[in-house]
Known about the structure:
Domain MmgE/PrpD C-terminal: 269-438
Structural class: alpha+beta
Radius of gyration: 21 Å
CATH topology of the largest domain: 2-methylcitrate dehydratase PrpD
Organism: Sphingomonas abietis
Helix content: 40-55%
Domain MmgE/PrpD N-terminal: 6-243
Oligomer: single chain
Number of helices: 22
Order of helices and strands: HHHEHEHHHHHHHHEHEHHHHHHEEEHHH
CATH class of the largest domain: Mainly Alpha
Largest sheet: 4 strands, mixed
Number of domains: 2
Pfam families: MmgE_PrpD_C (PF19305), MmgE_PrpD_N (PF03972)
CATH architecture of the largest domain: Orthogonal Bundle
Number of strands: 7
Protein name: MmgE/PrpD family protein
Amino acid sequence: MISRNYAAFACGLTLDAVPDTIRSRACHLMLDAIGTGLAALGETWGERAFAAAQELGQGRAATLGHGRALGPREAALVNGVLMHGLDYDDTHSRGVIHATVTSLPAALAAADHKAASGADMLTAYIAAMEISTRVGSVAAGGFHRHGFHPTGLVGAFGATVGAGLLLGLDETQLVMAQGIVLSMAAGSLEFLEDGAWTKRIHPGWAASSAFTAATLAKHGFVGPRAAYEGRFGLYALYLRDAAPALLAEATRGLGEVWEIAEVSVKPLPACHMTHAAGDAAAAICAEHGLSGDQIAKVTVLVPEGVVPIVCEPSAPKKAPATAYDAQFSIPYVVATGLLKGRFTLDELDGAALADAQVLALAQKVDYAIDPATDYPTHFTGEVIVETIDGRHIARREAINRGAPDRPITNDEIRAKFDDNAARHLPRAQADAIADAVLTIADRPAADLADLLAAVVPAPILEGVPA
């Protein structure tokens, strides 16, 4: 059974068995997620989530930017919300999953709860990543087609194994824990229809559920053994297929081929499916410097699988009402890139979203299916601009920046972290956090937890209970 293979892999994993390059990359992926969480401090949705978590369960667990006020499950929930909420976190393309923002909050909560070593926390994080990415890869994008968000759905499984390792579960208990979390894994794409906040909570819910499932299994609670391939297991339920063709992907190269090396780091704070088109638009801006009045029409070639997420329904995509709408909008990202030559967090504030020139150009942006895409291996994109004076200008990005074969380097990840952290922290405090993450294998996990908890909390918004 797949769950037994995962349990055996996790229980047998040692940090010494992980190549140095993978260990280093894992630390940098954690740093990237923490940086996106720091950039999110003070956001309304984050403060609302923290206020709710305080009511659900108080304790001494470390919560990013909010001290030690929550229980471990609640801390995992809020940390996941913060790390994912800006949609600036990493993506495993083949699994179509934001793997770190489920794996890290669960591992941090469990390691902090058990006073574990940083080496054990890093090992658990790596195990979680290797499992969740493989679980997602089996679906080959199928979860999205059925309306499920894989990060919340799939991420719960790897996070459960990671948390279970730190809580001291044996192989049999880890099998039970995966079966238990099958009844907790969730994530609906309905947020795409009206810009709701629910996507932001998916990784936190997965991490919180992981801690819950692992704890139940630790105390002898019995779960199904065939969590994945069973008659009513993950794939039968969510893919409507009891025997998906790619089932071998679930354990392919486990312990020998490291999926962490295949994780893409985001260069833009938007859905990964918009990045190639956004970069193509920015390149056209740099070369041609067109104004909106010079452009008659824009066509963006996209993979068919991304259309329901970043292209349709057309009206709200062309006039996004919220930052989240904008992050999932090919028209907005491309129009911004064509006019400004960039897409940063600043392009998601209120003034940017109301920019009349960008919104007018977004109305001229349409899409067509890319016949040459290799999605989901890459999130391809091509922007074709037709000008008023009859010119055709095209730019194609066949490999999205940040993909494994066009990677963001570790130095670039550190620079991205510095930029994100600088929004709320003095440089010395940011440097201390970065050092703790990058040397986590040589120190107690509590060193990092304490630093994250000690970040000065963002002001509590008026009307939000303290």
